[in-house]
Specification:
By secondary structure, this protein is of the alpha+beta class. 39% of the residues lie in helices and 21% in strands. The protein has a 6-stranded mixed β-sheet, with helices on both faces. Helix 5 links the parallel strand 3 (104-111) and strand 4. The structure holds zinc ion.
């Protein structure tokens, strides 16, 4: 794995600019309707606007529920720090994730660095069956997301994650942890996940 991935600039916090917000791509999430894709596009923009204007460009999460018509108007919003956002500390987000038994939840959060999903994000995503999509919007306006497909297997996903963590012989530092997350993302289609 190239060291350039872990250079100081890559880990450095990037302040959100209006250009980054304008640059956010319209994503056609696999299997979602146009209405849902549009709503998620708006939420991704709102995420960076809130982070820029109210949270010093630090992490913010938005938790929403998908339904037949599109996306429920109720959503959970949580403000975090530079390196993490405690999604469940927001009562609405907690409620959406825990009460949604037959529906699907989408969580969007921003990363002040330009990095993709962290090992923590992946573990959280696997732990809660209700979370269908977990997306990261970087402060530069790029989007990465992971999604559970029909053939998704919780047991296989959990095993893959454990195997990778064991292979890395510990994930004590940020660099090892990020290598492990990239490795998981590169193999995740084997356990019924889709990563883009
Ligand atoms: Zn994250």
């Amino acid at each position: 794995m190239s060291d350039s991935l872990f250079s100081k600039t890559r880990n450095k916090k990037i302040a959100i600019t209006d250009i980054a917000i304008k640059k956010i791509p319209y994503i056609e999430y696999k299997g979602l309707t146009e209405l849902q894709n549009k709503a998620l596009y708006d939420y991704a923009r709102q995420l960076l606007v809130v982070s820029k204007e109210s949270n010093n460009s630090n992490e913010v999460s938005i938790t929403v529920e998908l339904n037949d018509k599109g996306i429920s108007d109720k959503y959970g919003l949580c403000l975090g720090s530079e390196h993490m956002v405690d999604i469940l500390s927001d009562p609405r987000s907690y409620h959406i994730i825990h009460s949604c038994s037959s529906c699907a939840v989408v969580i969007l959060h921003n990363h002040p660095s330009t990095q993709t999903l962290s090992l923590w994000d992946i573990s959280f995503f696997i732990k809660y069956a209700t979370i269908k999509i977990m997306a990261v919007v970087t402060n530069q306006g790029n989007i990465h997301y992971i999604m559970k497909k029909e053939n998704y297997s919780f047991d296989s996903a959990k095993q893959l994650l454990l195997d990778i963590i064991n292979e890395e012989s510990g994930i004590d530092d940020k660099r090892q942890s990020y290598i492990a997350s990239l490795r998981f993302l590169s193999l995740c289609s084997e356990v019924g996940l889709y990563y883009h």
